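Trying the structure run again after the queue cleared.
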Amino acid sequence: MAKKTQVPPKSFEEALTELEQILADIEGGEVGLEISLAKFERGMFLISHCRGVLGAAEKQIELLSKSSTGGIDAQPYEEPQD
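Done. Tokens:
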């Protein structure tokens, strides 16, 4: 089966909301197997996306927290290239 290109959500919160809806749909048992599999695939994509967003946020926090003088030293964070 060829993988479809997934469209990332506009925000972290939007991803979480979509994940909650996917979980409710699958757990509700009202959708068929093929739709459940498609929703599962989308859910896995969203989880991966959220992990990436959280990882980037964690790195930004680390950059903001570290300084040679012990204070907060803000530095711009460069997004990793895919």
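The helical segments are 12-28, 33-65. Worth checking whether this holds up in the mutant runs.
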